[in-house]
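Researcher: I'm comparing several assemblies side by side, and this is the next one on my list. It has 585 residues spread over two chains. Same procedure as the others: predict the full complex and return the structure.
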Amino acid sequence: MPAEVRDISKRLFGLAAEFDSPEAILEAAKHVRVQGYRHVEAYTPIPIDGLSEILGFRRTWIPAIVLCCAAIGAGGGFFMEWFANVVHLPWNIGGRPMNSWPAFIPITFEMGILFAGVSATIAMLALNKLPQPYHPMFRLDSFTEASRNRFFLCIESDDPLFDLEKTRQALETVHPLAISEVPR
Amino acid sequence: MTSSDLTTPRIFEARLPALIIGVGALAICAIALFFDPLHALRGYLIGWLFCLGISIGSMCIVMMHHLTGGAWGWLVRRPAESAGLTFLLLAILFIPIAIGAKVLFPWASTAAAAESVLVRHREPYFHTALTLFRALVFFVLWIVWGWRLHALSLEYDRTLDPTIASKLRRYSASGLVMVFITMSLAGMDWIASREVDWYSSTFGLALIVGQGVAGTAFLIVMLQLLRNAPRVSDAIKEKNRFHDLGNLLLTVVVLWAYISFAQLLVIWMGNMQDDITWFYHRTHRGWKVIAILLITIHFGLPFILLLFQGSKRNLRILATIAGGLLFMRAIDVIWMIVPSSRASAPRIISWLDPIGIVGVFGIWFSVFLTLLKRHPLIPLAFERVIEIVPYGRSKERQPAA
């Protein structure tokens, strides 16, 4: 990477374009994706159907993590009851078999749900790199509008194609309300 | 009647073959009646209960949709209403069961009354005439609701009159209460009473939810069979729509497992002589294999498959899962009926059990298709009521008050 480019990505987080409608940002997102930009992020006040697909949203690891943790929780719950009732302190009350599995199912289920819920929350926060008290986009004065009626599309400076001039031109062709440099 | 979309789906060509196969299978049952009346009638009862489950389940789906709304229900409304119209047929098909009640049910059998003090004790409630009269009341209620739901829905199609929509909601709310009460009692009369020393307050609910699985699965299979009809293919183009049917199927499968397991758990923890006969008879002499199949294929496998979005957004895969569940419903009905035959008769499956299912289902399906063919497969109101929202899920327009 040439020194100049590295400088830019150290100094700049990216170039942000501002739009006033969901249709406009969808068009813009399509356009910059076609141009080949990959490190693109959108900030919108409402969920826009199809936007994350255009931006190349991939399936996350969360379902796999949650499934593993749920299996560990359920297996652990069942093992705990089985160990206590069959191995550690076998004590027959009521004439059922020692490994009285139907009676173990509720705890097994609850432990599976508990582990799934907790792991989903933790995995979501970790994969989103949260909690994150500061984000470069906050440097933009107009960014408070992103939670009201403005739609922001930011091409990040670590994109392989990022070039201050060319990227600006690419964003200009989709007629945003404004283009701003986002400092680090 | 005139719309061309009625004639295209090939499934309507199955009406005559289904009728012939059904009548043929029932003829075999009728011949078997002379040398093996118990098994012939039992097979017939199993087939009849299987079809009743589809009809009750489908009617519950229609009523639920009237109360909740949503685009998914419009896809299956006509097939579900047609299934709800078959109660008259099911009432007629009940006549052989009523005549053969002596063979099938302890409450109608003098031999069972002589053997068991419990049967004698229950005589006031299970008096033969009273039990058959209850059946008549159930049929009248089901026929009336099935007919009203269908007729009002057709009228709504013509007029789009919001007062009819609200009338449909009233019928649906009262109808769901009615079905849960009547079907619980009917389940006691026709299924649970065959296991003399057994009580369970959950049985009716578990049965109705099982019928809900049958109804939902049947409607999904019908959607797949009708998918090529012009208006049906337009209506299912948006994947989100039948995706919801897959979610509904997942819900009823999980609910069925939950309630059935709750019943097992309560009985298991109680461990009382009076409660255990149901599960004892159904987990011994090879029935354990069927019980494990019910856990794994009626619950485990569809549960895992239906968790994935991909299997709910592909109608062919969804219909395959639903078809498997419909098959497991038949197995479940066999599992409920066969092991509690009287002690003198063997508690094993007979070759007449599947014959009975084929017989009654063949006739039922043929009549169902005939009823379905009379009206447009997707209600005409569908395109007018459903609003397609760009970048979002389609919503149902609120009818003007």
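Model: For your comparison table: The mean pLDDT of chain A is 88.
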